[in-house]
Structure formats: C-alpha cells, structure tokens
C-alpha cells in the first residue's frame, strides 16, 4: 500500500500578510499554509489500484461539484507518487472517515511505511476503506493542471454508507470529532481525538504531495 506525504502547515495563524506582499497581490508559501490551517475540514482517503497494489493518500481537498451528473473533485500534487498512477478513466475510491478512524488517517498521511492496511474493501471494483462513514466509487473524468497540483474531477459510480456517525475533522494540525451546536450555545463543542500530528510528512492540510 503506497501512501503519500503532505505539505506541512505551520502552527500560528497570521491576520495579515506583509504589506509589501499584499501590495503585489503575492501570498508566500508560509502565509498560504497559515491561512488554510484555520479551515476545519473533513478527512477522506483516496484509494486506487496501481498494478497489483493498492495505493492511497489522506486528503481534505475532496469537494462535491455537481449532482447532475454526479461529480466530485480532489487535488493531488504534481510531484507525488500517486500522481503518476492517476489518469482519465481511472477507477478510484473515496472514503470519508469517522471520528473512530484517526489511525487510518495517520496511516495514509505518512510516507514512512510501505506495508498494506487491513481495512480495505471493494465497492463497484474500486478499493475503499471499510467501516468509513461514507464510501464512494468513482472514475476520474478529467484532470486539470492548477499550479503545483492537479485537480481530478471524478464521476460517481456508487456510494455506500455502512456506518453513519460523527465525522473525523482536521484543524490546526489536530484531529477532532464534533458535537452538534444547539440553540444559542457558543461554547466549544469540538472533541479532540488525542491524535495530534507528530510532525514530519504528516503535518498540516492534506494537500497530497
């Protein structure tokens, strides 16, 4: 099972870019990382066959695009190991992780090991993560270049929701569950999962690299 590293994001949020950079309309890599660290995101794993193996990576860049036809997208780094295996017509699986699956998120976010994972299943011929909140089987329809990443637009072929429940969230280098807000509550209703990123290749927003 191949897994891919991540572009790390730094800890502190900055309110404003330096005046010189702002005047040029130029946001540097550090400002970019710090800004997007403030965006809480759901966590997904994108999986696909590569020869006799299944490769995968953790991503927060999965987005719905269209209901008719049913389309979604994810982003992948141009220089990633995964990018070389992704092309139009490629079947892929997308699994939205639940708050009980921080170990799987960390597994597919790390590039330290090359061993497989025992949580795999199949849906419509595509590899998926078993026991995820939602599973999607899709086929890559188009790939669009976008700076140092590629945008992969996929047509959904099948979905499965084997375990409805609380989603796994990622925010400021940490994993969280959640509690619904009710009425006029303003207190912090997030629930930390005690699985903070430990640094290295699995830090930050999951732009796959």
Provide keyphrases for this structure.
single chain; 209 residues; mainly beta; seven-stranded antiparallel beta sheet; four-stranded antiparallel beta sheet; 11% helix; globular; disordered N terminus
The string of secondary-structure elements, in order, is HHEEEEEEHEEEEEEE
* Spatial arrangement of strands, main beta sheet: 3-2-6-9-10-5-4
What share of the residues lie within helices?
10-25%
- Outline the low-pLDDT stretches: 1-23, 195-209
| Count of helical stretches | 3
Mean pLDDT: 78
Q: In what range is the share of β-strand residues?
A: 35-45%
> How many beta-strand elements?
13
The structure class reads mainly beta
Cα-atom Rg, whole angstroms?
A: 17 Å
Gross morphology: globular
Termini separation (Å)? Answer: 16 Å
| Biggest β-sheet strands, sense, barrel | 7 strands, antiparallel
